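Field reference: sequence -> structure
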Amino acid sequence: MIRISYFKIKEEDYNKIFSIFYKVIGETENKEEFNRILIDLLTPSERIMLIKRIAVIYLLIKDVDYLTICKVLKVSNGTVSKYRLLMEDSKGIVPVIKKMIKSEKVWLFFEEIFSQIFYPGRPGINWTAAWEIRNTLERKKEKGL
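Structure field:
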């Protein structure tokens, strides 16, 4: 659990700080630069938490069932239910992901992330399935099928 100071920041100061944050994140040139910024800003557990949250929302939009999401991402059923409820009123991430899903490149992007997270040889991962996923991804990159 994170600890936040009891002392509140003034609204105008918050807006200034947020604009700096937006400039830093929004003006990254490529994936490597963005990754370096996230490594500097977030702990490894915070990065994993954010990735899992985005993945849960993505898989829910793709209509993957709860148990599969829980099993693959190692999250609780309560977490998946929480994000299902949050998605109903979302005006931020859900429309963005829905727009991205329409593009074939995004599908390959998420598959690439999942293959990097659940790579063959990682403890607790079914190596055969992981190799199949990796080979399928490589085939899609090369042949588009």
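Note: Residues 25 and 34 are 7 Å apart (CA to CA).
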